[in-house]
Amino acid sequence: MDQHRINQILKQYAAGALTEEEKKELEQLLAQPGRDALAERIAALMGEESDTSYTITAGKNLETFARIMAADKPLRPKLKPVARWWWAAAAAVFLCLAAGAYFLLNPGRQSAQTAQQQQVTPEKDPGRNTAVLYLEDNSAVELDSAGNGFLTNQGGARVTLANGELAYEPQPAEGPLAVTYNRIATPRGGEFSIVLPDGTKVWLNAASSLRFPTAFNGEKREVELTGEAYLQVAEDKARPFEVKIRDVNIAVLGTQFNIMGYEDEAGIVTTLVSGSVRVTAQGHPSRLLVPGQHAVVENKTGALYVQKADVAEEIAWKNGSIHFESVNIRQIMRQVSRWYDVDVEYRGNVADMDFTCTVSRRDKLSKLLTLLEMTAAVHFTMEGNTIIVQP
């Protein structure tokens, strides 16, 4: 069968428009030896069909690839370690694709053999549950080394630890309690969750901290955040919940939302998952969000604007994933730096391009970097604890 005809059949299959005659042709094609070559052709075809924008959608291509290669037999759930390289390479490329000019499968690309031989040197274990609790008297408790169970009493609350989650349980008291404050902080390469005295649950991302009272006695429930957190706020209509992050204030009643406010990012981003929140920034009218929106307060200008959010991407960290949709390499590496506790240095003219990529946060660093390298757009080495990014 000539190459032009193969292309036609594969395009028809991807579109779900095969005729009975074409189905038979595909069955005959798959029955022939040399599935490696067919896999390469499918991968190349998908690359050719993509436009020249910075990214293409990974999911559809990967699904199509799997369906075509499994058309003559059930798809195995996992590839064996000895599985042919093009199977693994094509799947990886579709999970992480850069600008069209750098597609691994386009003219001018590195050969499959050369790409196969590349090894990503940098390796680090992923982050883990680790944090430090700072008490009212400034004493510190290393939570990752503390045993499960009762830790201490703080300002009318019983503090316990259970499997990576800190919890503050209010205790009966005679009369009003003096307000005391605690702070929980995660390092780079750390994450932790905490249940506040009102039942609100907070997931802290790496390099973040939360300052909170050990009892909510006033008309409002107020906490202060640095870095990034996902909050599931306990509803209490009589006492609104407020999060302060630098000069931005987020007010809620009962809702779920994410706040990302690292100082090395472009701005403070509040992403609403459910309920409603009101975002206030200095010099701007407050903005009320509906689910699926995020409010951005730019670090440089202080400008406040509301947009439709990619909620799945913005809360992926809380759900155990590293997920990017058309995200700049420098933004990706900032997240890599925080989660894998590494420094990043750029050498040479690293292209300012976007990537689409998904891996588990439990994967080692090399898996993510290997996917990025397979685009032939960037390469990585490691010196000490510093990742060197080069074209």
Automatic annotation (TrEMBL):
<protein>
    <recommendedName>
        <fullName>Iron dicitrate transporter FecR</fullName>
    </recommendedName>
</protein>
<dbReference type="Pfam" id="PF04773">
    <property type="entry name" value="FecR"/>
</dbReference>
<dbReference type="InterPro" id="IPR012373">
    <property type="entry name" value="Ferrdict_sens_TM"/>
</dbReference>
<dbReference type="Pfam" id="PF16344">
    <property type="entry name" value="FecR_C"/>
</dbReference>
<keyword id="KW-0472">Membrane</keyword>
<feature type="transmembrane region" description="Helical">
    <location>
        <begin position="85"/>
        <end position="105"/>
    </location>
</feature>
<keyword id="KW-1133">Transmembrane helix</keyword>
<dbReference type="InterPro" id="IPR032508">
    <property type="entry name" value="FecR_C"/>
</dbReference>
<feature type="domain" description="FecR protein">
    <location>
        <begin position="183"/>
        <end position="278"/>
    </location>
</feature>
<feature type="domain" description="Protein FecR C-terminal">
    <location>
        <begin position="322"/>
        <end position="389"/>
    </location>
</feature>
<keyword id="KW-0812">Transmembrane</keyword>
<dbReference type="InterPro" id="IPR006860">
    <property type="entry name" value="FecR"/>
</dbReference>
<dbReference type="GO" id="GO:0016989">
    <property type="term" value="F:sigma factor antagonist activity"/>
</dbReference>
